[in-house]
Amino acid sequence: MSISTQFPMTGQPTIQHSSLRLLAMLGSGILFSVASLSTNASTLISSAEYLDYELPKSVQDTCGEKQRCPEIEVKYLNTNLKWINDITNKRIDSLVVNSQPSESAVNKKSSSAKDVKIAIDNFAKSQFAGTPEGSSWAYTLTATPDYLGHVETFELFQINSYVFTGGAHGMPYSEYLIFDPSTKKQVKLVDMLQADKNSRFKALAYEAYKTWVKTVDENVSNYEKNWPFTLSDNVTLTDKGIDIRYQHYDIGPYAYGMPVLSIPYSKLNGVIKPHFMPKIK
């Protein structure tokens, strides 16, 4: 039986095949850093490639007969900076390996290519063990890196993943990555803060939280009883300040999405290290 799979890429044709193979190809085109958040020059070129993966034959036979095959879409980052690729793709592997059919938090750890294949195979097989007979929906597992641009010399990326195993909705996940080409290392929140400024940054984030709450609830105090503030270290730089991303259920119900709290640079002077502050043009 011939099965048609549509890859969601602008300008890319539908790909017909009979083995459910995800072909290695450019996923989102090529992005140049000169078209990013800052006018600061950069030479980074970014694209994404699909994982070359084939469903186990037992799954192909079963899902082909039932006409509801698991949807697997895993992409890897492919830039002209190998060290950025290595860090990002290692994180993608970890997300895939830990994408169990549950709403549990992601367990951050490294994984091998073998681990990834075993995890996807098990994910695909679990569809037919965990779904009622006659169900029309299919399990979904996606993981995609996106280039956000750069601020000053810092290169900014985001990994988005999604897992659906039935129920009212799937579970999206979004994670920021900041890279410093001068050190060839990933930058985390702890690296950005000046000494003994964590409590001050947390206070600023709490103020941003209360501002956000007012967009969804008139009573901040009552809202906070059900969805108390916590500080997330999932941050990125923007041309205006620092954005803090939260996952579903972190500080609000699923319907409120993945909130982003923003702290402007005007409030971060003396809180984050000087080289993370924008240079005055």
| Multimer state | single chain
Helix proportion: 25-40%
Strand content: 25-35%
Order of SSEs = EEEEEEHEHHEEEEHHHEEE
Q: What topology, given as strand order, has the largest sheet?
A: 4-5-7-8-9-10-11
Spans of at least 5 consecutive residues with low confidence: 1-30, 32-41, 102-106
Main sheet overview = 7 strands, mixed
Give me the secondary-structure category: alpha+beta
| Number of helical regions | 6
Number of separate strands:
14
- What is the rounded Rg? 21 Å
Average pLDDT, all residues: 84
Cα shape: flat
What distance separates the N and C termini? 61 Å
Task: Give short descriptive properties of this protein.
single chain, 281 residues, alpha+beta, three-stranded antiparallel sheet, 6 helices, 14 strands, 25% helix, flat, disordered N terminus
